[in-house]
Amino acid sequence: MLAGTWVDRGALAVRPAGRTVLADDFHVHGYPIDGTLPRWELQREAARRGLDVIAVTNHNQTIAGRLGGFLSGADVIVIPGQEITTPGFHMIAAGVTETIDWRLPASQAIAESTGRAAWPSLPIRSATPGSPVTSRRCAYSTGSRLRIR
Predict the structure, then answer these.
(1) Residue 74 and residue 44: Cα distance in Å, rounded?
(2) Continuous segment of H or E residues that includes residue 55
(3) Helical segments of 1-149, H only
């Protein structure tokens, strides 16, 4: 936590004319299990860093993103989600409230995320154009922006 504070560069303040751009972090781990801060403290920290929205995406569970949302006074949107973690891939599924089975193949995990957003959370050696992990049904995180293809 302290190291993160030392290297903070702050959010990019890009506001193109006629558009609203939100500064985000869609790969946040929280308490319980993966992180040390509960959702309401993550919201306060995100506000301190100038973020507008975060997705709380613990490994293979969704409770951290759903826990205690009513407790924060911070004006930061929290999207519950899950980092689907398997031996073959890690994938963020934002907007899910029910745990997606980590034993599913990538294409099925994406299907389980239908109506939400899913994208690789870490580089994947086998991700090639047209593969299930890089299909057009995925959203891609590009720095502090989210772009849906």
Answers:
(1) 5
(2) strand 53-56
(3) 2-6, 39-48, 63-66, 106-112
* Sequential DSSP letters for 59-102: BT--HHHHTTGGG--S--EEEEEEEEE-SS-EEEEET--SPPPT
- What residues form DSSP beta bridges with 28? 56
Looking at residue 16, what is its pLDDT? 62
Cα–Cα distance measured from residue 136 to residue 149, given in angstroms and rounded to the nearest whole number: 6
Average pLDDT for runs of 10 along the chain of length 149: 47 62 90 89 91 93 81 81 90 90 89 75 51 40 38
Q: Looking at the chain, how many residues does it have? A: 149
pTM: 0.69
The answer to whether domain 20-148 has CATH 3.20.20.140 is yes
Angle value at C-alpha 18, between 17 and 22, nearest 5 degrees: 85
CA–CA dist 85, 42 (Å, integer): 22
Structure tokens at 1: 């936590």
